[in-house]
């Protein structure tokens, strides 16, 4: 209630992004988890984790395309804006959620398994589980630097080609 007894207007809540603001976001990290477990699970499960992450990336890109289509329903450059939204989201997510972190965790795990094998006398199962723990614990530390690097990469390359004035959200 305001000072004159009238109700104050409600402020508009920002729209919640299903793919970025809910638990679905964690599906984008499925391949990092898969890479962390590579030493102890069949490789087919690792590839399945990439399938989950890629499905997430694709669904987010389609969602951003639909939102761009709805927001630009009557504009003459609607197709261009939708294409930019889909391509930008897909490329950004493919790099920041799948390719770069998957490679990074893979190398962290491979290096740790090698080093544990050459520097300890631990049994192989202990080395493999330690490698998995190292990979899982590295995930939170690589996310923000990779996201920032992909933003820089996209801003310095692909996004320079876009003819729209505003930068798509990543």
Automatic annotation (TrEMBL):
<dbReference type="GO" id="GO:0000266">
    <property type="term" value="P:mitochondrial fission"/>
</dbReference>
<protein>
    <recommendedName>
        <fullName>Mitochondrial fission process protein 1</fullName>
    </recommendedName>
</protein>
<dbReference type="Pfam" id="PF10558">
    <property type="entry name" value="MTP18"/>
</dbReference>
<comment type="similarity">
    <text>Belongs to the MTFP1 family.</text>
</comment>
<dbReference type="GO" id="GO:0005743">
    <property type="term" value="C:mitochondrial inner membrane"/>
</dbReference>
<dbReference type="InterPro" id="IPR019560">
    <property type="entry name" value="Mitochondrial_18_kDa_protein"/>
</dbReference>
<dbReference type="GO" id="GO:0006915">
    <property type="term" value="P:apoptotic process"/>
</dbReference>
């Amino acid at each position: 209630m305001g000072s004159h007894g009238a109700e104050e207007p409600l402020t508009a809540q920002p729209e919640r992004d299903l793919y970025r603001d809910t638990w679905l976001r964690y599906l984008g990290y499925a391949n990092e988890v898969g890479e962390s477990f590579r030493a102890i699970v069949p490789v087919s499960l690792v590839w399945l984790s990439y399938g989950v992450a890629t499905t997430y990336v694709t669904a987010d890109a389609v969602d951003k395309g639909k939102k761009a289509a709805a927001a630009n329903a009557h504009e003459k450059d609607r197709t261009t804006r939708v294409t930019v939204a889909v391509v930008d989201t897909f490329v950004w997510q493919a790099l920041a959620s799948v390719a770069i972190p998957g490679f990074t965790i893979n190398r962290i795990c491979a290096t740790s398994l090698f080093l544990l094998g050459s520097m300890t006398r631990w049994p192989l199962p202990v080395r493999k589980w330690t490698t998995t723990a190292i990979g899982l614990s590295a995930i939170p530390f690589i996310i923000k630097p990779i996201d920032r690097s992909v933003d820089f990469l996209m801003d310095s390359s692909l996004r320079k080609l876009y003819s729209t004035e505003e930068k798509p959200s990543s």
